[in-house]
Amino acid sequence: MKRVVIVGGGITGLAVAHALEKSAEACRVHLFEATPRLGGNIRTVWHSGFTIDGGPDSWVATKPHATRLARAVGLGDELIGTRPESRKVHILWQRRLHPMPEGLVLGIPTEVGPLAKSDLLPLDAKLRALFEPLVPRKDLTGPSDESIASFVTRRLGAEFSERLVSPLLGGIFAGDAEALSVRACVPQLVEAEREYGSLVLAMRAQKARRDREREAAGVKDGETPSVFTSLKRGMGDLVTHVAHRLRDADVATEVAVTGASALPPGDPRGRFRVETSRGAHIECDHLVVTTPAHAAARVLRGVSDDIADELATFAYSSTATVFLAYRKFDVKHDLEGTGFLVPASEGRPLLACTFVSSKWEHRAPSGQVLLRVFFGGARGADVLDADDDALVRLAREELLDVLGIERKPSFTRVFRFDLASPQPGIGHVSKMERLRALLAERPGLYVGGNGYLGTGIPDAIKQGEEIADAVMASARC
Question: What's the CA angle centered on 394, arms 393 and 395, to 5 degrees?
């Protein structure tokens, strides 16, 4: 029987354990999580009728792995999309909220009319964006790479990048679009340029293809599917249900893996030994590390200095989310849409704000509203030096200035995520190639999770399931 140790109880580690438990061949699985709770960045709390997702509040609907896992663990009836009437996103520019033009796909315009009507961009910036199909393509194969901001500026112009695409794409990573790798973060844009020679033409083709698929599926005009999927009782339900399905795995919280080593070369099975904070030593055939890279580097130092050194170069930023609840009567703003993004050039301490109760059903009691303010990230780390009370005061100051909310909130809640947001910088793809080559020299060793490949919960689950497949395909036992 294969013996597998999984380090890290976030969604990737849970996906590995779940897939192994569902496999045809039985495995002895040990999963260790250093904190008191499973789920990693996924944190849901309930308070006075409010459902509060401190970390991610959804996943991208078009990526199937998270939805498939949710259905597999009995959450099919709990899946929800954003409110159909509240899917507008705003950009905060010069103290005003500007609706993001309709027809954007990954921030790329596919329609002339909505862009022409928008007052977010001057006429010359709109014309520059519409002439994007005439811009020569650039070869980004091999070691070549480019930042998101540089890529979008080259294709669509500086103002379009600054005010629209960089806040949208950079905000996903709580990162600086000037530093994030376009190849690592949004490879579909690079592929669009390579295949079509134009982002505009590529996104128009993608939109037309989806419209045809919707028509074939019998979806009526005006019934636009939600881009994001969540759960009625919050994202924590996914963690809870996956964990409860692990009948045979040995799952331990508040137990850290303090180190790992490869057994002597003479060991015919080439196994690993892990040490835990409880003083236990466990030998295994397969070692799966799903922690952030900086933590993985510490665990794997005793296995391979080369792997640990490579992992130590992966960058992460810290963030905080501040939740504020109000009586609807006390908020004069209509809170239309899902919230707003803040371009870096605005020089504000907040990164974004979500109108949680406008975006989702089942998040606030009747007559109440819930808002979430984001701080920190690659361009706002200093803000996080403040204590929770100071962050709440700062959030209230920003909401007063932007939304005109003067009243005191009925309650607040602060969540902090230290070094939890990956920052895939320029050269990240080459870095991953080096890491994969080093791992190939260590059969039975796997690294995956947030910060390596892809973006968001579906990609994290996909990595976990692929690792489980590799474990089961291996002859090591």
Answer: 90
pLDDT for position 389: 98
Tokens 């040990």, residue?
30
Residue ranges for the chain with pLDDT beneath 70? 217-223, 265-269, 477
How confident is the model at residue 221, as a pLDDT? 55
Q: What pLDDT does 270 receive?
A: 74
Strands (E), 82-152: 89-93, 96-99, 104-105, 108-109
Cβ–Cβ < 8 Å for 341, 139: no
Could you give the 3-state DSSP secondary structure of residue 51?
A: strand
Sign of torsion over alpha carbons 9, 12, 15, 20: negative
- Take residue 60 and report the two structure tokens written for it: 């991208």
| Pairing outcome for strands 228-231 and 50-53 | unpaired
Residue 266's pLDDT is: 59
Scan for tokens 């260590």, then name that residue: 442
Rounded to 5°, angle at Cα 53 from 408 and 446: 145
b vs e for 141-177, b when ≥16 Cβ sit within 10 Å of the residue's Cβ? Answer: eeeebbbbbebbbbbbbebbbbbbbbbbbbbebbbbb
Task: List the beta bridge partners of residue 261.
Answer: 273
**CB 9 within 8 Å of CB 289:** no
pLDDT tens string 224-275: 788 999 999 999 999 999 999 999 999 999 999 999 999 876 566 679 999 9
* DSSP track, 170-208: HHHTTS-TTTBBHHHH-HHHHHHHHHHS-HHHHHHHHHH
According to DSSP, the β-strands at 44-47 and 104-105 are unpaired
Q: What angle do CA 95, 101, 105 make, to 5 degrees?
A: 125
Indicate the pairing of strand 250-253 with strand 27-33.
parallel
410, amino acid identity: S
What is the rounded distance in angstroms from the CA atom of residue 239 to the CA atom of residue 357? Answer: 22
Q: In whole angstroms, how far apart are CA 298 and each of 7, 195, 258, 260, 305?
A: 12, 41, 8, 9, 10
Q: Helix (H, G, I), strand (E, B), or coil: what is residue 341?
A: strand
Contacts of 65 by beta carbon, 8 Å cutoff, 6+ apart: 458, 459, 461, 462, 465
Q: What is the pLDDT of residue 417?
A: 97
Q: Using the Cα atoms of residue 94, residue 100, residue 105 and residue 110 in order, give the sign of their dihedral.
A: negative
Please list the alpha-helical segments (H only) found in 82-198.
Answer: 112-117, 123-130, 148-156, 158-160, 166-172, 182-185, 187-196
Neighbouring residues of 251: CB distance < 8 A, sequence distance ≥ 6: 9, 17, 31, 33, 38, 243
Residue 404, helix vs strand vs coil? coil
- Predicted pLDDT of residue 171: 84
Tokens of 294: 């900086």
Helix, strand, or coil (residue 290):
coil
- pLDDT tens figures, 374-386: 999 998 999 999 9
